Amino acid sequence: MLISSLITLSIGAFSSFIFKHHTGINYRECFALVTFGWLAASLFGTLPYILSGFAPSFADAFFETVSGFTTTGASIFPDVESLPKSLLFWRSITNWLGGIGIMALFITVISGIGVMANQIFRSEVPGPVSDKISPRIRESAKRLLLIYLFMSLLLTILLFAFGMDIFDSLCHTFATVATGGFSTKNTSLTNYNPLIQWTIIVFMFLAGANFTLHYLALLNRSLKAYKTNSEFKSYLYIVIIASLVVFAGVSQYPGWEERVRQSMFQVVSIITTTGFATADYNFWSPGAQVILLILMLVGGCAGSTAGNIKVGRYMILFECAKVEIKKMVHPKSVWPIRFSGKILNDALVLNVLKFFFIYIFFAAIGIIILSLMGLDLISSISACFSCIGNIGPGFNLVGPMQNYGQLPDLSKYILSILMLLGRLEIYPVLIMFSSGYWKE
Asked: How crowded is the C-beta side of 288, counted as CA atoms within 13 Å?
């Protein structure tokens, strides 16, 4: 770890010296900062795995690092309990740093770049609409960071108080608040007591909600922000309904409390894209598995640490469908598309529709490639949607108690690309490959 740190710091210091006179940043560079920043972090993050000798190949080290920084939580290690604590801590740190993403970037790097800050903010904060806490983007980032740190501290204290040792408390806190999912145990959270599992459920749910709402709730000492936010309410309803349906399909648990807990844990874990597990849902009923597979295409709220498509985009898509039906009945009427009480312009609506298409397109390409490499269809589908959605576990070969280590190296690179695309919400990465981007 020390050698890895020295190498990274040396290259960072050299780069700072080379570009010390470069004080401005333009429209194109802000996208490069986001995309190449995540790629560079992923490359340097491989050093602890490579130098320690625990990663069998560079593909494995790169996959594990990308999985950490993108808060996916998919792992190539069949026995994480055999890893040294320093490496386990690094895995958890990559989750936490990935989740902190935009807040850390603004506070430490992009002070004083003015209007470009808003473009980077939109590039990294996931979701179709990001509520602003403050008119100044830097102040907003600071306040979001404070919420992130507060949740991290509180969860660490609670997990330790409820029986988890301090090391595991820190590691699981980093993975929970970031919705990352890296665990220090081979069976994830299966063997921890129910109180710890319920605590993780609550904090996964909070991490999947818009952090702006948490700030407003603490600032005003009121739950009004949650009650008036349509995306949060839809997010809550989805969790409740999905948990009830899964509950009906998991009759193998003897007690009601355990049945409710297992159902809700997996629903919240997948919709928030955390990826923790308390059971191997490969052995659940087909009905319960279908619900979990559907949730792999949903995600949390805009402005959260969760990945995936996001509840807000589905709400906009649903509103589009409603308006189109109304236009068929009343073709001469004008029906605006609304989201959270606001009328959306056509450009934003089109952007959401394009995002859906591109998201499914890249996932489909990944599924085809993995299938051609010999993976069964269920494993291919769940692996690709799990990685582009930054979830982690899938079904069959990549289920919650399995790992990605047995996959071919090429498939690991493909899935790593999907993770990066999903974490950066596709557009900042695609812009790098447009011919117009590189023209003056």
From this structure: 24
The angle that helices 377-388 and 409-423 make with each other, rounded to 10 degrees, is 40
| Measured distance CA(93)–CA(44) in Å, rounded | 14
- Return the DSSP state at 113: -
What is the spatial distance between Cα 177 and Cα 147, in angstroms, rounded to a whole number? 10
What pLDDT, on a 0 to 100 scale, did the predictor assign at position 107? 44
* Model confidence at 116: pLDDT above 70: no
DSSP 65-91: HHHHHTT------S-GGGS-HHHHHHH
User: pLDDT digit string (tens) for 310-319?
Assistant: 999 999 999 9
Q: How far is CA 189 from CA 181, 355, 390, in A?
A: 10, 34, 19
296, 391 contact by CB (below 8 A): yes
User: DSSP letters of 236-300?
Assistant: HHHHHHHHHHHHHH-TT-SSHHHHHHHHHHHHHHHHTT----SS-GGGS-HHHHHHHHHHTTT--
Judged by DSSP in three states, 222 sits in coil
Give dist(CA 276, CA 181) in Å, integer: 5
pLDDT above 50 for 419: yes
Q: Are 303 and 310 in contact (CB under 8 A)?
A: no
Backbone angles phi, psi at 401, to 5 degrees: -105, 10
Buried b or exposed e, range 341-371, using 16+ CB within 10 angstroms: eeebeeeebeebeebeeebeebbeebbebbe
What's the length of the chain? Answer: 440
Cβ-count burial 91-117 (b if 16+ within 10 Å, e if not): bbbbbbbbbbbbbbbbeeebeebeebb
